[in-house]
Specification:
By secondary structure, the protein is α+β, with helices and mostly antiparallel strands. It has 10 helices and 20 strands. A hairpin with a 2-residue loop joins strand 11 and strand 12.
């Protein structure tokens, strides 16, 4: 079993605490992505699993072995780095097989493992080339091949796609995910790109200032964020946030913005949001839950400042109730900068947060029921 467990793990650099008492369990054969902004502690966590950083306190286990104080070579992990870390004077064949050669593996076994890794990664025709003769995506595949031949319990990926262009990133996402399906090893993958996290992971761990803000499958993170940080980080474009109050409106409830705009809450959600009546809240609305025109009961007027055509749809970026607002509309929706346009929002997809950024306790419990 290649389960990875971190128990009360603390990491300090001198007197600075960068990871305060982290607890994390990654199941055998699971693909887990650690995601968050720069400086959130995700790479430090990965390096502690690998043994490249020493935990200040706490315990790290891989399977049934505690590895907290083991050197990296004894942990049976393979790490793929951001910068490939290939030997420029060696061929692809020698780069992939170098680690086995150092360990004294039989030549025939080395050749077998190299051939198998090259076949899996589509590198057979490149085995006699050197890194400078390869594209960025091919170099990253060589780095992955070097990890495969070690037959590790755990694959560790440290932002492996950040040096690739947009098209190659998409291709390599698919290749790494397919590789996981074929090999069924445990994978711990670090990225700052939430699109990578959402498209690749079985579970996503969202980190902020060394703390796990939420850990869940991608759809749960998107639909039920535990706080405003997670809600803002997951989703592209990012969620909109507006100061508001929940007030009575006829027989139901409405969210009223600072400029008086009233957005009715659907009847099926009045019980859920009733306890917030009369309280200040932060309203969260995703751009993709909007449409151009007055096509429903919840409509606001957007003062458009910037228009971003994206092909299948267009983003309107403007102002509402003193806050920045992004709305996703049909690609052919008529609009020019500095015009005002009516936008309909699906309030059944709304989120409410307290002013400090957390989900209201009543909303959290209702969403999990």
């Amino acid at each position: 079993m290649a389960r990875v467990t971190l128990t009360d793990v603390v990491k300090k650099f001198d007197e600075v605490v960068v990871i305060p008492e982290l607890n994390l369990e990654i199941q055998d054969k699971e693909f887990v992505v650690l995601v968050g902004p720069s400086g959130c502690g995700k790479t430090t966590t990965l390096r502690m699993i690998a043994g490249l950083e020493t935990a200040t306190s706490g315990a790290i286990a891989i399977g049934d072995r505690e590895v907290t104080n083991l050197r990296p070579g004894l942990r049976n992990c393979s790490m793929v780095f951001q910068n490939y870390a290939l030997y420029p004077h060696m061929t692809v064949r020698d780069n992939i097989g170098y680690g086995m050669k150092v360990r004294g593996v039989d030549r025939a076994e080395i050749d077998r493992q190299i051939t198998n890794a090259a076949r899996i990664l589509g590198l057979v025709e490149y085995l006699d080339r050197r890194p400078k003769q390869l594209s960025g995506g091919q170099r990253q595949r060589v780095a992955i091949g070097r990890a495969i031949v070690r037959d590790p319990d755990v694959f560790l990926f440290d932002e492996p796609l950040s040096n690739l262009d947009a098209k190659l990133r998409i291709e390599m996402r698919s290749e790494i995910k397919n590789l996981h399906r074929r090999l069924r090893n445990t994978v711990v993958y670090v990225t700052h790109d939430q699109v990578e996290a959402m498209t690749m992971a079985d579970r996503v761990v969202v980190m902020h200032r060394g703390v796990i803000e939420q850990m869940a499958d991608p759809i749960t993170l998107y639909e039920q964020p535990s706080n405003a940080f997670v809600a803002a980080f997951i989703g592209a474009p990012s969620m909109n946030f507006l100061s508001a109050k929940v007030q009575a409106a006829g027989d139901g409830l409405a969210v009223v913005l600072a400029d008086g705009t009233s957005l009715p809450i659907p009847a099926e959600h009045t019980d859920r949001y009733g306890p917030a009546k009369g309280r200040p809240v932060t309203l969260g609305l995703r751009p993709e839950h909007m449409a151009g025109g007055a096509a429903g009961p919840a409509v606001f007027t957007l003062t458009v400042r910037v228009i971003e055509p994206l092909g299948p749809h267009t983003l309107l970026i403007g102002e509402l109730a003193g806050s920045r607002m992004t709305a996703q509309v049909d690609a052919h929706f008529p609009c020019e900068p500095d015009q005002t346009r009516e936008i309909t929002v699906d309030m059944s997809k709304m989120h409410l947060f307290d002013p400090e950024g957390g989900v209201w306790s009543w909303a959290r419990s209702a969403s999990r029921a």
